[in-house]
Each structure stands twice: as C-alpha cells, then as structure tokens.
Amino acid sequence: MSANYQWFGQYGDVGSPTTADLGISGNLYNYKTYNDLSNPADYTSYPITAGNNSYDVWLKGHFTGTFNEIQELKYWKSGGSMGAGESLYWGGNGITAYAQPVTGNSTYAATTIPTSSPGSANVSVGGSLAGSLTADGLSDFIVTQLRTTVAAEAGDTETFTFTLTYNEN
Amino acid sequence: MTNIGDIKDSGEIRARQELRYEWVVLYSDGSELREYDEEKGLVNHFGCIDKDKADEFSLISKKDGTRVSVNLNTGLFYINGLLVKEGWDGKNKIPIGLFIADKKVVSPWGNKAKLIFWKNVRRDFNMGTGKTTTTIDFTIGWEADVDGEKEKRLIKILQDGSITIPQ
C-alpha cells in the first residue's frame, strides 16, 4: 500500500505541449531560457542573463500504484540560499490548465516560494487545496520561475532543494 | 481508492523499498490482513481493512522487527506488546493513549475507535546535485466519541524509529 511517485513535467508551446514523467532520481530539471524540460543538462546552452528570467517550469506530482487516498500536498524550498539579484517565484493553488511558459514575469508563478513547510496544503488537487486523489492521478500544476535582476552574479546559482510532502494511506 | 496491487509489480517493488515499516491488522476472528501479503501476492491499502473486524493495527519495522501497535478496543498503544502509557518530550511526561474499554465508544467503525493511519511522505529534490531523497514517517492512532466527548490519540513513528506525539 504505497504509491509510486514521479515528478511530471509539461513544456513546449501551449498548442502542442509535451508531457513527460521526469522520474524520481537524478537531475530532473533546471531553470533556463529554453522551453523544454527534456534535457536538464542543456541549461548551460540557455543561460539566464542578469536582469532576465527563466521560462516558468510546469510540474505536477504523479501518483500511481496501490493507495487509498493521497492528500495535503505541500511544496516549498527547503534548502539553498538565493544569490544577489535572484528570486524564486511559484504558484500551486488552483492551476489546473497548462498555459504558455514565458520569460516575462509569470502570472502563474506569482509569489515568492515558501522557505519553510506551510501550515496546511498549498498545492491543490482537482482545483482545491482540500482535494485528494483516490486513484492513479496527478496534482494540479506547481509552477516555478527563477527571476533575476542586473545584480545577479555570473555563473551557476546556488543549489536549491525543493520539497513536496503529502499524506497517503 | 485504487485496486489491490500485485506484489511482484516493478512499481510496487520500488515503492516497498522506500518503506521502513509495513502494517498488519489483527482481526477479531484471529485472522490478519497484511499490507504485503506474500502468500497471496497482493499489496493491500487502508481501504482494504475490514472495519467491522479490525481490532489492532501494527507497524512492523523491516529493520529489527519492532512492532508498534494501537488497539481500537482499548485505545492503548503498545511497543513489542508492552503497554506504552506515557511519552517524554524532554520536559514533561505526556500521556499516550486513553483506556476506553470500559467506556461508551462510538465511531464510524462501530462501538470501537476509528483507526487513523497516514504515511507522511517527504520528497526532496536538490537542483544542482541532482540528488533526490525520500523520507516516510508514519502517524497511527484513533478517534471516537468516548462517553460523549470527542477524543483523538495519535503517535508518529519517524523514519529513524523514534516516536513523537503530533501536536
């Protein structure tokens, strides 16, 4: 009685997006100026220059296998410090439909990402923070974006740890 | 709820490897239901538990066999069959469980407490190192109306085997 979990990503043009399980281990994705999650290592070819943003990244939690119910999804940045001129924005409540990723300020990743576990669910399922899964399925979208100002330093950012928690039985 | 799983399914095998504890329910007729039923080759979930027959729910450590149990008729918690009455938070003794066998008990599970069981799953992804980790704690306990009062008793078994009382 344990669900199988994978990170699920959606990217590409809104008219013909690509959906894919990103897996559970290894380098799942990176922030870059290329609207494609298929090759995380290519971020060096699509760098975010100071004063610009990454494309917003569209993820979901993908649950399959044997379980009764999955609920109370929480997402936050649990590790890593932002460098000068860097900030991470996110959205996770009620984003049920994919929209065109942008390098402007995303209207979906619109608030700074929490840096500690929220007191209650902050990622919705079926459009509701009180929603749950009782069969194989996906959470709603978790959208994040790395934004920079001209104060951002050259080179890779600090490493970040992102955490998703949920209850299952 | 999802269907019962096949114990040999590759996804089930992977999910099982993440668990430090597996559960078993003891029924009033002496039989039991295991999360991983090796004999039948099945993977069961919470929704498979027969509410009418369930007496005791246990988590069994895959590492050392430690058994942490809650009895739905008595309201008491046990470790390896020994009653656990109190916990220690570093400052104070905190009562664990509530003896309800001599009280009027009503819950959705009948004249006994309703089982509470959750796996508290945490998945971390480090962008940069590409390292992912999974931590699974377990919350077990019960809730019921006891002599007309709503009562709930929970304990949390952390991945390292330590036990805390959820706030």
Mind explaining what this structure looks like?
The complex is a heterodimer of chains A (169) and B (167). Chain A is built from no helices and ten strands. By secondary structure, chain A is an all-beta fold. In chain A, strands 1, 2, 3, 5, 6, 8 and 9 form a seven-stranded antiparallel beta sheet that branches. In chain A, strands 7-4-10 form a three-stranded antiparallel beta sheet, with no helix packed on it. The model of chain A has no long low-confidence stretch (mean pLDDT 92). Chain B has one domain. Helices cover 5% and strands 50% of the residues of chain B. Chain B starts with a strand and ends with a strand. The interface between A and B is large, with 41 and 38 residues.
CA gyration radius of chain B, whole angstroms = 17 Å
Overall strand count of chain B:
16
Strand content of chain B: over 45%
Succession of helices and strands of chain A: EEEEEEEEEE
SS field, number of helical segments of chain B: 1
- What structural category arises from helix and sheet content of chain A? mainly beta
**Average pLDDT value of chain A?**
92
Instruction: State the low-pLDDT regions of chain A, or none.
Output: none
Helical stretch tally of chain A:
0
What level of helicity do the residues of chain B show? under 10%
SSE inventory with pairings:
The complex is a heterodimer of chains A (169) and B (167).
Chain A: E1 3-11, E2 18-23, E3 57-65, E4 70-79, E5 86-91, E6 111-112, E7 132-133, E8 137-138, E9 142-148, E10 160-168
Antiparallel strand pairs in A: 1-2, 1-3, 3-8, 3-9, 4-7, 4-10, 5-6, 5-9
Chain B: E1 5-6, H1 10-17, E2 21-27, E3 32-34, E4 36-37, E5 42-43, E6 54-61, E7 67-71, E8 77-79, E9 82-84, E10 86-88, E11 93-95, E12 105-106, E13 114-127, E14 132-146, E15 149-157, E16 163-164
Antiparallel strand pairs in B: 1-5, 2-3, 2-6, 4-5, 6-7, 7-8, 8-9, 10-11, 12-14, 13-14, 14-15, 15-16
Brief account:
The complex is a heterodimer of chains A (169) and B (167). Chain A is mostly beta strands. Chain A has strands at 3-11, 18-23, 57-65, 70-79, 86-91, 111-112, 132-133, 137-138, 142-148, 160-168.
